[in-house]
Amino acid sequence: MAVMMERRRARPGLSPREAAFVTGLSEKTINQAIDREEVQPLPARRVDDRERTLGFSDLVYLQLRSEIGALLSAEGKRLLREQLSAAEDPEGIVNIGPMEVRIAMQVQRVEERVAQIELARSFVVSDPEVRAGEPTVRGTRIPVYVLSDLAAQGADTEELLEDYPSLTAESLEAALLFAGMYPRRGRPRSTPWKDGVVLRKPS
Q1: How far apart are CA 39 and CA 183, in angstroms?
Q2: Cβ-defined contacts of 157-165 (< 8 Å, 24+)
Q3: Helices and strands of the chain, counted as H and E runs
Q4: What phi, psi does 136 have (nearest 5°)?
Q5: Distance CA 105, CA 64 (A)
Q6: Mean model confidence pLDDT for the chain
Q7: What are the residue ranges of CATH 1.10.10.10 in the chain?
Q8: CA angle in degrees (0–180, nearest 5) for 160-166-171
Q9: pLDDT band, very low/low/confident/very high, at 103 (cuts 50, 70, 90)
Q10: How far is CA 3 from the centre of its chain?
Q11: CATH of the domain spanning 2-118
Q12: CA 72 to chain centre
């Protein structure tokens, strides 16, 4: 248990968008919880880092909030947050007045979702020497947003793996998850289509 707790503490915090994926809450709701100081963002790792990030206990709290928040008063939510922050065993039981809350399932769900994010990050790279830094699947020149666009237009996993044999089912899943969590910003330099016809391979 101690090893798992240390591993959780050592993980980098998750952004509000990532926290939304983990908890099922909207990104707006996550940001509102931070603004109200319902949860506390982690200290910035760099002086110029303005992105707010949340730690593991905050993610478990928000997961519980999405499921039983309607049953809790503002004071109940505060007590739940405090107990989760101080808990030695984050997979046991927390007590909020007469209410006993078993949190093992929520902890497991958060662990699984965080692992998915870590997997997506491990399969996607942004190298200035490859397609001017556009996110691509590691070990290839395949842009993740091309794959996402094709999937959105109806291409299924079998088609994409056939068209891009250097991909595996795992790397494709990770790329699509990455594209969903981190939408492209601004106007794209180029599009994977021309004159309305999808180009199945990037140039």
Answers
A1: 25
A2: 163/200, 163/201, 164/140, 164/201
A3: 9, 6
A4: -130, 165
A5: 10
A6: 80
A7: 126-198
A8: 70
A9: confident
A10: 23
A11: 1.10.1660
A12: 26
At residue 180, φ and ψ (nearest 5 deg) are -70, -35
Among 189, 133, 193, 180, which residue's Cα sits nearest to residue 27?
180
Mapping DSSP onto H, E and C, the string for 43-106 reads: CCCCCCCCCCCECHHHHHHHHHHHHHHHHCCHHHHHHHHHHHHHCCCCCCEEEECCEEEECHHH
Q: Report residue 135 as tokens.
A: 């996110």
How many residues are given for the chain? Answer: 203
- Closest listed residue to residue 118, CA positions, set 7, 26, 41, 3: 7
Q: What is the CATH number of domain 126-198?
A: 1.10.10.10
> Residue 143 carries which DSSP code?
B
More confident residue, 122 or 71: 122
Q: How confident is the model at residue 104 (pLDDT cuts 50, 70, 90)?
A: confident
**d(C-alpha 108, C-alpha 14), whole Å:** 17
Q: Given a cut of 70, is residue 89 above it in pLDDT?
A: no
Per-residue pLDDT averaged across 68-93, rounded?
A: 75
Give how far Cα 75 sits from Cα of 51, 59, 98, 102, Å: 28, 19, 13, 19
What integer pLDDT is reported at residue 158 of this predicted model?
A: 94
